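quick one, 137 residues, struct below
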Amino acid sequence: MRGGIYVAVFVLPAERCIRVGALGRRRFSAGVYLYVGSAQRNLEARLARHGRRRKPLRWHIDYLARHARMIGAMTIAGGRQAECRTADALARRFARPIRCFGASDCRCESHLFFAGPPWRRTNRSHGTSTEKETPNE
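---
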């Protein structure tokens, strides 16, 4: 796929305060984050960039990606409107930790969503999720 939208999945192993460009210093809880973005050209290159920790800081996600590990991404065909529709759908399911994160060029509240602690597991046979007490790593 040459262009489209994506949902990149990041894991932040420990809580930390991170400066996010003009948004300033923000506290991020340890856990899994979903970031909705788009690239109308070179989608694979954009995702590879998000997965690197050392890079010039250009987008809000770059600041988080310096501390969090990208563990995967889902790509979807579509343009800018599909990006915002996807962010809106995720906003109904997940918390938005930082207003305007990744959404400075649209009217969305945020394009970053907190999906929960990294040790949250789903019981596949019952479709329920459980949290396992795990020491901070």
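DSSP finds three helices and eight strands in the chain.
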